[in-house]
Amino acid sequence: MGEHGPYEIAFLTGGAVRVAQTALLALQERGRVRVSRGTHRVEAVLRDADDPVQAALLDRIPGTGVVLGVLLRSAAESDEVAAVAAGLGSAGLVRAGFRGRLRLTRAGRAARDRAVRDAPASGAGRLAALGPDGVEDARMRDILRTDDPKPVKLPRDWATKGVNRNTERSELRDTQYGDFGGSGGSL
Fold first, then answer.
1. Which residues form the domain of 78?
2. What is the reported pLDDT for 122?
3. Mean pLDDT of 130-145
4. Domain annotation covers residue 185
């Protein structure tokens, strides 16, 4: 990666969300997170981080998982990603622009162009420099390039539709607790 690490390059080429994407891909490549292609749900498999940005991302994944877009936006707003931006500011590669938004300086644009030109052949560093289009794994490339699916809108009575609330008149046997033939005995 030369003079800058993958997170610095990710920030220069794509901003804070690209930093979060880079951390996610590094975790996914090491088998520490799993990302569903259909639902874009991210689940932590192993909560072991190599750096503070990965730790911040893992901390935002609850036990039930989280939708990819929500996770990336949340991690992009973390203190750890802000520290990456602050380091770039100290190096003179970014500065505050209109309404406080960070903008690349001339040196920052030159560093970005070098990073894109010298992008690694694979891995999270390639994503950092080239964005989701640079991801070699077709599955992850598609996941990162597509929007999260819209939530399904269920009708109000979806949970009770087709349920017989009159349990006294049901002719079905209750086999859950051992009533297997009317003898009343258990197994």
1. 6-145
2. 84
3. 94
4. no
Q: Which residues contact 14 (CB under 8 A, 6 or more apart)?
A: 21, 128, 131
* pLDDT value of position 152: 77
Residues in the chain: 187
Distance of CA 134 to the CA centre of its chain: 17
Number of domains in the chain: 1
- Looking at the domain assignment, is residue 170 inside a domain? no
CA distances from 159 to 7, 23, 153, 165, 168 (A): 45, 39, 13, 12, 20
Q: 70-97 as b/e, with b when 16 or more CB fall inside 10 Å?
A: ebbebbbebebbeebbebbeeeebbeee
54: in domain: yes
DSSP H helical segments within the chain, as ranges? 6-14, 16-29, 52-59, 68-76, 79-90, 106-117, 124-130, 138-145
Say which residue the tokens 């009343």 belong to. Answer: 184
